[in-house]
Amino acid sequence: MKKEIQFTLQKTYGNKAVAAKLLGISRATLYNKLKKYKLYKEVKTPVSHLFICVNCLNSLDIY
To answer: Would you place residue 51 in the very low, low, confident or very high pLDDT band (cuts 50, 70, 90)?
Structure first.
């Protein structure tokens, strides 16, 4: 599960709400797992990658 979380956070550029949705868990559960696996560091990405497709967010029903 640790590797899945790391991969998903990288894929979502550190967006924990989207990562939790993709992993099928609540945000609270994701935060608990981040603490458990000691994954405190934020995912560092270039500013140009901070733009997330609005249609992608709409399809996840979180935007």
So the answer is: low
Nearest to 21 by CA among 34, 30, 13: 30
Residue 36 has phi, psi (to 5 degrees) of -60, -45
- Domain spanning 2-59 has what CATH number? 1.10.10
d(CA 15, CA 23): 12
Q: Is 19 exposed, middle or buried (0-12, 13-18, 19+ CB in 10 A)?
A: buried
As a whole number of angstroms, the distance between CA 59 and CA 19 comes to: 14
47-63: average pLDDT:
54
> What is the residue whose two structure tokens read 């998903």?
8
